[in-house]
């Protein structure tokens, strides 16, 4: 993995407005890389993570906060929240129990 080997690397943000990956961006070199994505708790990648942290919040509260944040930023993603993200979060939790794989639980 380039980051761990301290080699230059890139990442691509997902643009939910266009539903496509964006242009590759350089990933700064450093000692710590924090990635915010519940899907990273997938069994295929758990062994690649040094620390797993779960922010314990009800899905309904997290969704309301996310929708409010998006609207404040001028992005209306409510349909995506209801049609894609919330169902995906429920399915992922049911199939992979990410909370149970957290080494650190934040309440």
Give the SSE order as H and E letters. EEEEEHHE
Q: What structural class do the secondary elements suggest?
A: alpha+beta
| Helix proportion range | 25-40%
Q: State the shape.
A: globular
Largest sheet: 2 strands, antiparallel
Q: What is the strand tally?
A: 6
Amount of beta strand: 5-15%
The stretches of 5 or more residues where confidence is low (pLDDT under 50) are none
Number of helices: 2
Mean pLDDT level: 91
First CA to last CA: what distance?
31 Å
Q: Widest sheet: strand order? A: 1-4
The Cα radius of gyration reads 16 Å
Can you lay out the helices and strands and say which pair or pack?
Blueprint: E1 9-11, E2 14-15, E3 20-21, E4 25-27, E5 53-55, H1 59-72, H2 78-96, E6 104-106
Parallel strand pairs: 5-6
Antiparallel strand pairs: 1-4, 2-3
Helix pairs in contact: 1-2
Report on the architecture of this protein.
With 107 residues, the chain is an alpha+beta fold. Helix content is 31%, strand content 15%. The protein contains two helices and six strands. It has helices at residues 59-72, 78-96; strands at residues 9-11, 14-15, 20-21, 25-27, 53-55, 104-106. A two-stranded antiparallel ribbon has the order 1-4. It has a two-stranded antiparallel ribbon with strand order 2-3. β2 (14-15) and β3 (20-21) form a beta hairpin. α1 (59-72) runs antiparallel to α2. The longest helix is centred in the last third of the chain and has 19 residues, at 78-96. It is globular, with a radius of gyration of 16 Å. It starts with 8 loop residues before the first strand and ends with a strand. The model has no long low-confidence stretch (mean pLDDT 91).
